[in-house]
Specification:
This is ADP-ribosyl cyclase/cyclic ADP-ribose hydrolase. By secondary structure, the protein is an alpha/beta fold. It contains 31 helices and 36 strands.
Length: 995
């Protein structure tokens, strides 16, 4: 345990013990001595010394050099001139040096010591009488004052404890507390620590007294140990039992012994792991305990120290630091704090404190300091190491160090970081790490996983392990990232294999090394990956023969590189080919790509992928984006495993091969900005595995087939700025699509359903042109109305899109009411209030006939027209029940309620809508649907706009078949654009009486 002990603070000893040997040595003091030693307290006890003049000098030095003095006041203490002289010296140090003094009243009363009375006083008086005879008046007076003073100090009284063992435990605990023996040494410059520590402490404080386990996770050098020490120092005094255990490089039994010994403050011997687990559980169970386990590297360590965690009782806290978050998940800790890199301001301050002993760099070093800080990437370890290395050095040295760091990383930093890499027991995980740090930083995780799986590296678990061990990270948009210093570490590991001959390294990425190998033909079978990125304006040409010896090459990345000669020289082990700016019109047939997982030929000059179809059984990803000369896709029959087809911004592409419909594993098609593409092959709609379809910017595509619903896995459809004018009806009935961007609609489909429905129900063209003769009513069974399910409504309206009407059956009146409210929200706009300004507009009527309505229609129409011409109010002119051919029911607003009469035979009905006319809004233009609600039978019938323009006999039969004598019915007529409906009436046309 690191502490602010005597050896670190100028003191010689932690504790000086003054006692009278005859009555305490064999029992109490020997026990106390062992306990203090076991607890790591540096103690001076004089019984080990022989008496003599030299001894006196040693004792004086020991007293003066101790942080604390323990005075064991026994009965015989007052009879020893030696002890009393020690007490006087201790008292002097207390006054002059601030030494702490703690009295231990061993079988004596503090009052007897204070007043020199009782048995203690008798022994003291005997000694004083003898000394006075020798003229030692001043010395006797000093003894008396010292005894009185020490007796007034707070101490321990043996009479208050059941045993010496209990007394000793209390003394050791008091010493730890008073001397801050377990106060841990932390960094000299705790920049940014307080806010980070507070997050963890806040969590601990909010546990309401229950036990908790907290994990601190991050890469090497990120400050995990520093934060853990800071937390320990902040909260340790709340706990009687506490310890800070460094777990790295310790065996399991050694760890158990260390934990027990430090927390119990006595040496403990453990003979087996099982015994250690049992001892930890028994000794700590029920105790408020604080334990920090620093730098845990394997789960077995946690099992040995924490067991099943049942002993972590109320109020106990365990803090674990590790580079491997999986250990924390396996232990099921309560909270994980992830270490993040320091921001730029914190980094500059921490570096400046070490390099300049100031919060900011001096002006003439400002730019150099910022360059070093940028190199460190917010890693505290690197900032401290480089800051301490550069302190008081010249600018020329600083510049030299920066140049050196570009070639060779700092050894001290790399030593710490490499622990994580060396801790990988699986060589496949090491290969994945090295591949990522050389070729795949910034690439999509799923993309990299596919490629490395194709290399046989088991990347699904491998990448997960590397993330858990803080060696790589997943950043925004699922891209793989890595701390710059870890990347340097990985590349340095590769360089170590062959400093002189780059052709013998496993991976090449540094341009100078790659150019050297390709121009001198020095490549070897050791090369597994090669990357050469040239500028757009530079296209160096190399011979394909330069690859002839690279038989193990599996990863190839070339940007704007020209290759001449026989492409058959390239490795047959290739799994990833990324060749931006590929200059040929076709991929040569002798370029063996049979094992390739991903082909990326962005910005290529390809016209066709191949002159004749190729069979690539393993190919999963094909990216030909920005290939401006590409005129058609390849024949896909030879690419059965293809999962992602990316042809973004290929302006000459005019044909997608019909064989695309045979790709059973295809997940993504991206045809964005393929401006010459005018249609999609019908076979494409058969892709049942497709999840994402992107057609944005395909200006000539003017139709999406209703068959798109066959794409049963499609979740995302993005088709902005294409010629399609109407969302296919089948889109809304899709069970998979979650997001669309089409015809001006963008967002989650579930939210857009109402707007899309409006576009179907109120088309811009003449409604009469949309009347179709499909008879019948689509019938929907009982539906769950509890949550106004949009999926159900989507089904309802998708049925309405290809039927004249739809019938919805509900189970209860409550469900009926809920569903009716939702449907009305979908199909009508908010009704405007009747204002004085609206009164200035004229009243108009609109008649809708259903079934056999002609018999009384002329008379009804004439009566309404005459009433409108002579009345300002619609309350007086609507005809009532005074005509032999109808029964009349009226209602205010946009609905009318009636009960089906029992004494007549209905032949039809006429709906009359009286509304306020404006130049902008007429009923013909604004009408959307007629909704008939049967409260008795709990059903709803909806007739869409093109139907209500022209009802027919079939429509009437649908209505009358669901109406019974005495049924309670309400009819709603819904409008858009804020049309104000004043009144509605329904006229039930009848023939002969049923009486």
């Amino acid at each position: 345990m690191s502490s602010s002990s005597s050896s670190n603070s100028g003191w010689i000893y932690d504790v000086f013990v003054s006692f009278r040997g005859e009555d305490t040595r064999k029992t109490f003091v020997s026990h106390l001595d062992a306990a203090l030693s076991n607890a790591g307290i540096n103690t001076f006890i004089d019984y080990r010394l022989e008496k003599g003049a030299e001894i006196v000098a040693q004792l004086v030095r020991a007293i003066q050099g101790s942080r604390m003095s323990l005075i064991v006041l026994s009965l015989d203490y007052a009879s020893s001139r030696w002890c009393l002289d020690e007490l006087v010296k201790v008292r002097q140090c207390d006054r002059t040096d601030g030494q702490m003094v703690v009295p231990i009243f061993y079988d004596v009363y503090p009052s007897d010591v204070r007043h020199q009375t009782g048995a203690f006083g008798e022994r003291f008086k005997a000694l004083v009488d003898k000394c006075l005879l020798q003229g030692m008046h001043h010395q006797c007076s000093s003894w008396r004052d010292a005894l009185t003073t020490v007796a007034n100090l707070a101490g321990c009284n043996s009479r208050n404890f059941r045993s010496d063992g209990e007394l000793v435990d209390q003394i050791v605990e008091d010493i730890f507390r008073k001397l801050d023996m377990d106060l841990l040494t932390i960094t000299e410059f705790p920049v940014g620590l307080e806010s980070r520590v507070q997050q963890v402490i806040d969590f601990i404080n909010h546990q309401s007294g229950r036990g908790c386990v907290v994990g601190i996770w991050g890469m090497g050098g990120s400050g995990k140990t520093t934060i853990a020490k800071f937390i320990y120092n902040q909260i340790r005094l709340r706990f009687k039992r506490r310890g800070f255990i460094e777990a790295s490089n310790r065996g399991h039994i050694d760890l158990q012994e260390k934990l027990l010994s430090d927390v119990l403050r006595t040496k403990v011997k453990v003979h087996s792991i099982a015994m250690g687990i049992s001892m930890i559980e028994k000794r700590f169970c029920g105790e408020r305990t604080l334990i920090v386990l620093d730098d845990v590297t394997e789960f077995a360590q946690l099992k040995a120290l924490c067991g099943n965690c049942k002993w972590i009782g109320v109020g106990s806290v365990v803090v674990i630091t590790t580079r491997d978050v999986r250990l924390l998940k396996l232990l099921e800790v309560d909270y994980v704090y992830k270490m993040e890199e320091m921001d730029e301001n914190e980094s500059l301050e921490l570096f400046s404190q070490h390099a300049f002993r100031e919060e900011k760099p001096s002006e003439d070093f400002n730019e150099l300091a910022r360059n070093v800080v940028a190199y460190c990437g917010g890693l505290p370890l690197a900032l401290e190491v480089l800051g301490s290395y550069l302190i008081k050095r010249t600018k020329k040295v600083w510049e030299s160090v920066l140049l050196k760091l570009e070639k060779i990383p700092n050894y001290q930093v790399q030593k710490i970081l490499r622990i994580s890499f060396d801790g990988l027991s699986d060589p496949l995980e090491k290969d994945i790490f090295l591949d990522v740090c050389c070729f795949f930083i910034g690439k999509d995780r799923a993309y990299v996983t596919e490629i490395l799986n194709g290399c046989g590296l088991c990347a699904d678990i491998g990448i997960t392990v590397l993330i858990e061990r803080s060696l790589i990270k997943v950043e925004k948009n699922n891209k793989l990232g890595m701390h710059p210093l870890l990347r340097e570490m990985g590349r340095e590991i590769i360089c170590e294999s062959s400093r002189i001959e780059p052709g013998k390294r496993s991976r090449l990425w540094f341009q100078k090394d790659v150019l050297d190998v390709l121009t001198r033909n020095t490549g070897t079978e050791a090369i597994q990956g090669l990357s050469l990125k040239l500028r757009f304006t530079i296209k160096d040409c190399f011979e394909a023969y330069a690859f002839v010896e690279m038989k193990g090459l599996r990863l190839l990345q070339l940007d704007h590189v020209l290759l001449s000669g026989n492409y058959g020289y390239l490795s047959k082990q290739l799994r990833w080919v990324s060749w931006q700016g590929f200059a040929l019109k076709y991929i040569p047939n002798n370029f063996d790509l049979k094992g390739v997982i991903a082909i990326d030929f962005k910005h290529s000059s390809l016209r066709l992928l191949w002159k004749k179809p190729q069979v690539l059984q393993c190919l999963k990803i094909l990216n030909l984006s920005h290939s401006k000369y590409l005129i058609e896709t390849p024949d896909f029959s030879g690419l059965p495993s293809l999962e992602k087809l990316i042809l973004k911004d290929c302006p000459s592409l005019c044909k997608v091969h019909q064989s695309i419909g045979d790709l059973r594993d295809l997940l993504l098609i991206n045809l964005k900005n393929c401006t010459s593409l005018s249609n999609l092959p019908r076979e494409m709609y058969k892709l049942k595995s497709l999840k994402t379809l992107i057609l944005s910017g395909c200006l000539k595509i003017d139709k999406l087939e209703e068959d798109i619903v066959q794409m049963e896995s499609l979740t995302t459809l993005i088709a902005e700025n294409i010629a399609v004018k109407q969302v296919p009806f089948s889109i809304v009935s899709s069970k998979s699509i979650g997001y669309i961007s089409l015809c001006g609609y963008e967002g989650p489909l579930r939210i857009l359903i109402p707007s899309i429905i409006w576009s179907w129900m109120s088309p811009r063209m003449n409604p009469l042109s949309r009347i179709h003769s499909i008879p019948g009513t689509s019938s929907l069974g009982p539906m769950d109305m509890q949550n106004n399910d949009l999926g159900d409504l989507a089904l309802l309206f998708s049925n309405l899109s290809n039927q004249r009407s739809v019938l919805m059956q509900c189970d209860t009146k409550f469900q009926l009411s809920k569903q009716l409210g939702t449907i009305l929200d979908f199909t009508k706009s908010e009704l405007t209030s009747y204002t004085s300004q609206v009164l200035k507009h004229s009243l108009e009527s609109y008649l809708i006939g259903i079934g056999s309505y002609a018999q009384g229609l002329n008379s009804l129409s004439r009566s309404i027209s005459e009433g409108l011409a002579t009345n300002e109010s619609c309350d007086d002119f609507l005809p009532g029940d005074n005509y032999p051919h109808w029964l009349a029911y009226t209602g205010d607003g946009h609905s009318v309620y009636f009960t089906v009469p029992e004494n007549c035979c209905m032949k039809g009905m006429t709906l009359c809508v009286v509304y306020l006319s404006t130049p902008e809004n007429t009923a013909t233009e604004c009408l959307t649907s007629v909704i008939m609600v049967n409260y008795t039978k709990c059903n709803i019938q909806i007739f869409k706009r093109d139907t209500v323009i022209s009802f027919n006999d079939v429509d009437w039969q649908c209505i009358i078949s669901h109406l019974g004598l005495g049924d309670e019915v309400e009819i709603f007529v819904t409008f858009r654009h804020g049309l104000v409906v004043k009144k509605m009436a329904v006229y039930l046309m009848y023939g002969e009486s049923v009486l």
